[in-house]
Model the fold of this input.
Amino acid sequence: MDSAGETASNANRSSLISVQHPYSRKTIGRNFASESSQALDPAICWQAIYSRDQRFDGRFFAAATSTGLYCRNICPVPFAKPKNIVLFACAAAAEAAGFRPCRRCQPQAAPGTPAWLGSSAVVSRAFRLILEGALNDGSVDQLAARLGIGSRHLRRLFVQHLGASPIKIATTQRVHLARKLLDESRLPVTQIAHYAGFKSIREFNHAIHLSTGQSPSALRRLSGESLSPSRQTGLELRLPYRPPFDWDHLIGFLHRRAIQGIEVVSRDSYARTIEAGRVMGVLRVTQDKAASRLLIHLELPNYEGLSQIVERVRRIFDLSADPIQIASHLSRDPRLKAISEHHPGLRAPGVWDGFEGAVLALLGQKLTSRGRVGDIDRLIKQFGIRFESSVRGLAYLFPRSEDLAEADLSRAGISPDRAATLRNLAIAVAHKKLTFDSSRPLGETIELLRTICGVEESVAQWIAMRSYGEPDAFPAGDRGLRRVLGTGTLITAKLALQTAEQWRPWRAYAAMHLTV
Done:
């Protein structure tokens, strides 16, 4: 395998210099190809291709210049000769070069490319913002301004680290969501175009045809017979992840922190009420044990902002994580290596809404504590939005920031000091002074949270960990975590931080391992 991989990688390097693409009829030059493959190790990629290793599914894509198609490494069809293969860091880069997705392995169904694939922190944050819909209604200039850089520099970084422009990344995400809806739902094609984020049917048809070589109607006909009649109510989607995936630990974590009336968590499923753009409904998530994916069932009056809903589900279950990469780094510490071997695929669970997660943190929820359950229950009953659901136990939506900003929190039995902190948070969120996107680095996020809410750093780190999905957040002040680090003895937060330095940039995952 090693010798084959070495031979193939040498051939691949030569193919990156100049290859003819049959669809675009133009040369893929040295600069584009080398930049798009900069973060890839051809030898490792070829071994993953030859072995069909599922752990690498979605981490790179192989395009054949002889066919004009690009594939996942697990594609069942034999790959082209090494001299005709070009490797790409993400699907958007392959499509930007003019390649089309393979019909057999369906690259749009691969686990999402991790935001940390590029070595640039700016690219990572921008990538996550695009997944959250930053370019659905905004421009690249606005995205760059949120990141504090120029738009030309942002485009250059994207091409350098991912091999495609921000616009191409966003368009590919829309196309992949549309393909998923065409394959997995009975929604009308016109609604799919709207829900996927396209501004017009013409733009939708052009993007689908450019990507696949077929019209949306033709793709729908190909998948129509495979749709189950049971999908007539609600919308069901399948979200893939990279194995291993510790479902039992994650669902247990969510169960212990479930909000009464808003979440219902069992061993096999997670259900909750949701609100997206003032559209209220129910979300239910189960694990597909036959494949590496989660089954998502949505019951909503319409599916406005569907891409944001999907991304929020991915955040709750940390589906963008690359457990092999994380475990490889953390296993340098013998203690964490032993834990990861017993609990492979541990994730850092997020929250449905950043404001919700911050409120729970201010009410005492921590890494090793459920928080003030009585205060949380009373807050929901007093200020939550009543909601009639088909799922038993789901009766409320979480209070909105503008409602809590004006609320008399003493009615929920919350102490004056804690109520003042909650009100400051709610006012800042309602007035858009505090948002829960990924535009700021961790240090700036922590400082902003401390300034607005007046909380200690450990609480801000916990909010960053769950509400922002920061992989390097570390709530060093958590007493339970400090006791575990001290092997039964309560060490100082300073010593905990010093110990955690070796785990960067995955300190959040190290914290999850230590408190499993």
Summary: Residues 1-38 have pLDDT under 50 and may be disordered. DSSP finds 25 helices and 13 strands in the chain.
